[in-house]
Write a structure and sequence with these properties.
With 358 residues, the protein is α/β, with parallel strands linked by helices. The protein contains 10 helices and 10 strands.
Length: 358
């Protein structure tokens, strides 16, 4: 495997008083280097994305605007892109480095035919907007870059607890990039997007897949998503490149400092299982693989949970010994029935576009 890392990622604080702090990247890197044998990975340093790179996914007007915000007095109200997202110079430059790392990962995965791992997953940034701690969308930049380089189909699998609305909007009319997002039900949850009915538009109709999970959905609910939606569509689509993004916020105890919890029900062991599903899928399809980790608000759990995702996707056995007692609602009959209802709804909505769901 190849890991792309630079301490410059740590400057991505949005804003520093919030729980999405850049220190998460160094914390994981230190955990990774102390637990992964040196002969199992190669370390690469990223290059910063250029404006030309960013124009692959964002409008010039938007890029000029965020540059303007970054030049304002640090910490002043004039630096706010949205109420939850400030844009300051160091943080913006770190975001460019994160985008560059994702694009570098695309090239490395193909050139060396090995899975590549890096950090970010800033999937709420759309063509001309940002928010949700996201300014520049590294996931979309990687997908566009993969499409341009390899001229084959690209599949994004977004496992963040929040829907990848920015990524979805960038590719909403594009059938060459299949976006699949499994996330918490957005009815009363950020970003208020990612409903099953959002299936794409124009030429991209049917190539946007949103699977909203009920609160307290656990690994058995995710198994329904995998068996009935993810794998059938992926095997029919046969992507040349798979990009997974998302971190630890589906963790059952992932309670942020923002006044709400994600209310999903995965244990650390379950993240290993989830990663394993996607890693096995990419290998069986012969697809190049890029993994982008970033989210999570229980900062103490981030290193071990991201590591579980990573080792699962690599096929490395899970070595955790923790005992984690889940809330009683996780994967109960109501959750299973609700998840099956989402799967049935998606089969009806997407059946006309995918014979595997018919």
């Amino acid at each position: 495997m190849i890991l792309i890392y630079d301490d410059g990622f740590t400057e991505y604080d949005v804003p520093p008083s919030y729980s999405f702090s850049g220190g998460r990247f160094r914390d994981f890197y230190e955990y990774f280097t102390s637990h992964m044998p040196e002969d199992r990975y190669e370390l690469e340093r990223p290059t910063k994305a250029s404006k030309e790179d960013l124009l692959l996914i964002h409008t010039e007007e938007y890029l000029n605007y965020v540059e303007q915000l970054a030049n304002e007095i640090p910490g002043s109200f004039t630096t706010y892109l949205t109420p939850d997202t400030q844009v300051e110079r160091g943080m913006l430059e770190a975001n460019k480095l994160i985008v560059g790392a994702a694009m570098d990962g695309v090239e490395l995965a193909g050139r060396r035919n090995r899975p590549v791992y890096t950090f970010g997953g800033l999937h709420h940034a759309g063509p001309s907007r940002g928010g949700g701690f996201c300014v520049l969308n590294d996931v979309a930049a990687a997908a566009r870059h993969a499409r341009n380089i390899y001229r084959g189909r690209v599949m994004i699998i977004d496992t963040d607890a929040h829907a990848g609305d920015g990524t979805m909007d960038i590719f909403y009319k594009d059938p060459s990039v299949l976006t699949v997002s499994v996330h918490h039900d957005p009815t009363s949850f950020y970003p208020g997007r990612g409903f099953a009915r959002e299936i794409g538009d124009g030429g991209g109709e049917g190539y946007c897949v949103n699977f909203p999970m009920p609160p307290f959905a656990g690994i058995n609910c995710y198994e329904i998503f995998r068996e009935q939606i993810l794998e059938p569509i992926a095997r029919e689509y046969r992507p040349k490149f798979i990009i997974r993004n998302g971190g630890s916020d589906p963790y059952f105890s992932d309670i942020p400092n923002l006044g709400y919890a994600t209310f999903l029900g995965l244990r650390k062991r379950d993240f290993h299982t989830l990663g394993g599903w996607i890693g096995d899928l990419s290998r069986s399809l012969g697809a190049y693989y890029l993994d982008i980790m970033g989210s999570g608000y229980d900062v103490d759990a981030i290193p071990t949970t991201w590591f579980a995702l990573m080792t699962g996707s690599l096929g490395v056995p899970y070595e955790g010994r923790e005992t984690e007692d889940l809330p009683g609602k996780v994967d109960d009959e109501e959750r299973i029935e609700g998840t099956q209802g989402v799967a049935d709804n998606l089969k009806e909505l997407l059946g006309p576009y995918w014979s595997s769901l018919g």
